[in-house]
């Protein structure tokens, strides 16, 4: 128990958190992120076989015709069959297994698991995060996703941890950029969970999305096979932050793109 607490403290230490942003962050713009998509670097064949087996269970009665309904069914099943707990930092198949056995997993684990299911189901997906600027130790950030919905011909923010979508005043689902542009311009933004009997508190949404100190960033260049390979071989021997640093030094790391804000605001 003491070792687990020490491990968690090290993993969430503010110095490591801020250092990660110093190494990985890049200022960007909306045009530059148009082509960023998890599917471009992660093919169906890259996704562990365990995901394909679970996916057959999720859609055992057939798959909906619309992209949005596929996404909703995925999220509803994952939330119903998992239980949050300590962050995992495990290879993707182990992360899914742990989530489904109720032994742990935070928003970033759910977002990465969701990425892989979207690839299997031919849904374009990408992963976003938020942090506070300037850095606030009380807010450790949040991870969520954005999916391209073919029938709407647009990107739509979806939070797979809570089953939350955001809408404009006319009820149209919003993309990540649209959510933050609307918030910052004072336009009305509505949110709701599509998970049955799920109520999301305003405090949760304000802390992770609506607070004026929150800034979003897109996680780019994440290759599932690379991180699975290194985590499986080095995880028992080295702390997770050292494994990620090794991947960074070899030039194979993911990075963060900030399309709306100067990332240096984090360090003010």
TrEMBL record:
Any Pfam family hit: Transglut_core
InterPro entries: Papain-like_cys_pep_sf (IPR038765), Transglutaminase-like (IPR002931)
Domain Transglutaminase-like: from-to ranges: 99-162
Protein name according to UniProt: Transglutaminase-like superfamily protein
Organism: Bizionia echini
